Amino acid sequence: MRGIVFVLVGVLLFVISCASLPAMYRSNCPAALEIQAKCRVPFPQGKWQFVHYIEATLPGGKKGFVMGITVISPVTETIDCVIMTLEGFVLFDARYDQGLITNRAIAPFDRIEFAKGLMDDIRLIFFKPDGPLIGSGILEDGSPVCRYQDFEGKTIDIITFPDNSWEIRQYGKDLRLARTVTASYPKKARRSGQQVVPDRLELKVHGLLGYELSMNLVSAFSLSE
Amino acid sequence: MTVILVSAFLCIGWADKWTGMKNAGANIASVSAEFTQEKHMRILSRPLVSKGVLYYQSPESLRWEYQSPVRSILLMHNGKTRRYIQAQEGIIEDAGADLQSLQIVLQEMTQWLAGRFDENSTFTARFENGRKIVLTPTQESISRLIRRIELVFSDRPGVMESVTIYESQDSFTRLTFQNATVNQKIAESVFKEK
After folding, report:
1. Mean pLDDT score across all residues of chain A
2. CA–CA dist A222, A192 (Å, integer)
3. Domain containing residue A129: CATH number
4. CATH at residue B153
5. pLDDT (tens digit, 9 = 90+) per residue, B138-182?
6. Are B70 and A218 an interchain contact pair (Cβ–Cβ within 8 Å)?
7. B175 has which bridge partners?
8. Would residue B9 count as lying in a domain?
9. pLDDT digit string (tens) for A119-158?
10. Across the A/B interface, how many CB contacts are shorter than 8 Å?
11. Domain range spanning residue A75?
């Protein structure tokens, strides 16, 4: 029995030690500049208000359905976020402006970890990574990628696809895939000014306590216009 | 939330007004109406608008259906409450919904529909400006969530014009009702099927 445990621990350590980022074949100028321009597409320019209908799949498979209102400003790095029922009852209302201010939080949305995690998710989805670009190039499947490393040591890959959809992959310090955001633009893709807003965003948080948010766009307004 | 009731309470005393409302409520067997819901909040540059329909059958059957922007249906019938909601795979029963809380809310609504405002221990009711009833929570645990509810009645007997639920100074939900019909037969299936 003890031998089996040792073997399992060994396999686990081996697997952990094998975690690595996907290979990226670096591009030189001007291809690199072209890729970096594509990598700006996911991130809204200026101040925006989004309303999403969110289907959340929680650990254990339990589902929840809420409306999410997000007002973001990449310039000021502020986030306003409201979660409410379809009937309009506000469950969570918070603002991030150099610090987190919770205006209202009703169980099960009343834990500080939830508020912090939510702001991290919103920042990952809507804001360009706050760390330096450490490279750009092509993944093995041929997709253009920009690779950033944030100040906490996490790696963020921004991958764009020929159909204009995109994916953000966040890797932890241990190089394991932690979060994935995918955006798709069905036929009903909405345009506001020069920007096309994805009709659907999917956030997947990997791991034992992972969850998924399927965010369907209800409305999007540029508040800078 | 709701529709319904009363007309002749405007010119009479407090006790008579409540009695008049109850009597009017007693004459309401069913109601159906369309509604528009506007959510107003400080952070919303424009209100969030939802539309739907409502059906009520005395004594306690209710269908509260949102048709846009997201379809969802609340059903209360024979003491059972269910919720259906739009998911990726279509309209599904929302097993994760807090049905106990929903049932309390829906029962509250059916009390209003029946004109029984002064029999409620959760809210105190008072008349204001003739056609308006203001409900104020009696418990602090509720007043932290809902500051007050304003019900405005139409000049048409038995029909409510709007309901406004104030959660805070700068956050409220307003429901306005249109095309209300009173005492028309409603099939039982409306309260049982999604």
Report:
1. 89
2. 7
3. 2.50.20
4. 2.50.20.10
5. 988 888 888 999 989 887 766 789 999 999 888 999 999 999 999
6. yes
7. B37, B163
8. no
9. 999 999 999 998 999 999 999 999 999 999 999 999 999 9
10. 65
11. 21-222
**More confident site: B71 or A195:** B71
- Order of strands across the sheet with B148-153? B90-93, B80-87, B72-77, B61-68, B48-57, B30-41, B171-182, B160-168, B148-153, B132-137, B123-128
Domain of residue B33, residue span: 14-191
A142 within a domain of the structure (yes/no): yes
Judging contacts by C-beta atoms under 8 Å, the chain B residues touching residue A106 are: 145
Cis peptide leading into A108, omega within 30 of 0? yes
State the nearest Cα–Cα gap between B158 and chain A, in angstroms.
24
> Is A83 part of any domain?
yes
Q: What ipTM did this prediction achieve?
A: 0.82
B166 domain-assigned: yes
Task: Evaluate whether residue A10 is within a structural domain.
Answer: no
Q: Is residue B137 part of a domain?
A: yes
Q: What is the largest CA-CA distance in chain B?
A: 55
What pLDDT is attached to residue B1? 39
- CB hemisphere CA count around B61 (13 angstroms): 19
Q: Are A65 and B87 in contact (CB under 8 A)?
A: yes
- Within a domain: B143: yes
Contact by Cβ (8 Å): A53, B69 = yes
For residue B95, which residues of chain A lie inside 8 Å, CB to CB?
A: 63
Q: Is residue A15 part of a domain?
A: no
The domain tally of chain B equals: 1
Residues 6+ apart with CB under 8 A from B89: none
Separation between Cα atoms, residue A100 and residue A98, nearest integer Å: 7
Q: Which residues of A touch B168 (CB under 8 A)?
A: 104
Structural domain count, chain A: 1
Q: Are strands B61-68 and B72-77 parallel, antiparallel or unpaired?
A: antiparallel
Q: In this structure, what is the dihedral angle of CA atoms A107, A109, A114, A120, given to the nearest 10 degrees?
A: -170
pLDDT digits (tens, 9 = 90+) for A184-225: 886 655 555 567 889 999 999 999 889 999 999 999 999 985
